[in-house]
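A reminder before we start the practical. When you read a complex entry, don't treat the lines as separate problems. The point of joint prediction is that each chain is placed relative to the others, so the output describes one connected object in space. Small molecules and nucleic acid strands, if listed, are placed in the same frame. In the example below there are two entries. Take a minute to note the order of the lines before looking further.
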Amino acid sequence: ILNVEQSPQSLHVQEGDSTNFTCSFPSSNFYALHWYRWETAKSPEALFVMTLNGDEKKKGRISATLNTKEGYSYLYIKGSQPEDSATYLCAFLNNAGNMLTFGGGTRLMVKP
Amino acid sequence: GAVVSQHPSRVICKSGTSVKIECRSLDFQATTMFWYRQFPKQSLMLMATSNEGSKATYEQGVEKDKFLINHASLTLSTLTVTSAHPEDSSFYICSARGLQGAEVYVRDGYTFGSGTRLTVV
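Here is the predicted structure of the whole assembly.
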């Protein structure tokens, strides 16, 4: 059983605050690490797919880093806005197949 | 971009009845469909993987006779919860991948439906 963990489980921040959360995953048999943004009643939307150790990816105010040797990834949101409120999921893909193993998610709530 | 439509979004059924959940890929051909279940405050857990035209592969602990998966076409996969009981009440969501090569999924991620909340009373 692959262990993918996210912390914190939930986070309340004020509009304008910057925040970050963590995903930890097995450091062996790594293929890719996915980040998804999941708003209530909508489909999870892919934010980043990260494959290389040391990768840093950015989309607007959101960025992510990857450390495959120690098995963690950080997601950063700069200047949080109410529309950033969602659950952020990470998912680990190993090199044995095409199955994603998800973490429990971090629920972010941004207060205006 | 790729879209997967999942229906119904919510369903309430009586114990002992069967419920069918559909996932349709709207603008691509889904060669593989993944079905997940999520219990409250837990992660998305993979139930089964289905490839078009072949039998689904179920994860350990998932009863294949209870959760029937059909993937008869490249645009439609269905999950039928047979003889549903209250403990089957959960959130079910599908995810699809299509004919493109693996590098597309490395770049773009997987495409999800919006999920179905099943309540068995």
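Discuss with your neighbour: The longest strand of chain B covers residues 30-38. What might explain this?
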